[in-house]
Amino acid sequence: MAHTPSLLAQACVRNLSARAHTTQVYPYYFSVTLATLPLRRRGFDYVFIVFFCWAFVSCIISDAIPTLGIVQSPDSTNILAQWNYAYASVNDPLFLNPPIWMRFVTGLSAFVYAPFYIVLVYALITARNWIQLPAVIYATMIASITGIVVFGVEFFGEAQWRTPNPLGFLAFNLPYVLIPLLLLIRMRKPLPFTRPF
Fold this sequence. Notes:
Layout: H1 7-15, E1 21-25, E2 31-35, H2 44-67, H3 79-91, H4 93-96, H5 100-126, H6 132-156, H7 166-173, H8 175-186
Antiparallel strand pairs: 1-2
């Protein structure tokens, strides 16, 4: 006995845009084509686009400096090192005098996450569903490394690396954990661009 799709499924198929679509396979007897939503209908993706453009710039400006071993001081000839010193001397002693493991963390940010941000922004703007798995991997990594390891050391670690200004530290760094966690939620199911969030 042949099964026919439900009336609801038939209506969904008829009402979908023929322009951009993705096929979602349901039980063996029918499949439904889901429309990829344009960016204007995925409003929160604008937040991701703006944030990850900023994150790209901030990775290059700030994380490359300690990774490359450039001394951060107020009288440095490197303006980026001066800016890093202005931030770190008040909020982030771990960033100011990073141990080798922290240089790996900043290196990951400057030379792995930063290029990924370009790919991610492209995928968000153009609704490329293939970004789902890389976005989940990235969000898990940064939430684990920054949210657990770095925040753990800044708040509970050795005295010389604890932040003297918790509110200032969180103001600068918490978005780098919260926005990736929101991205993880956004990418929770296959075909993320067929739904608004």
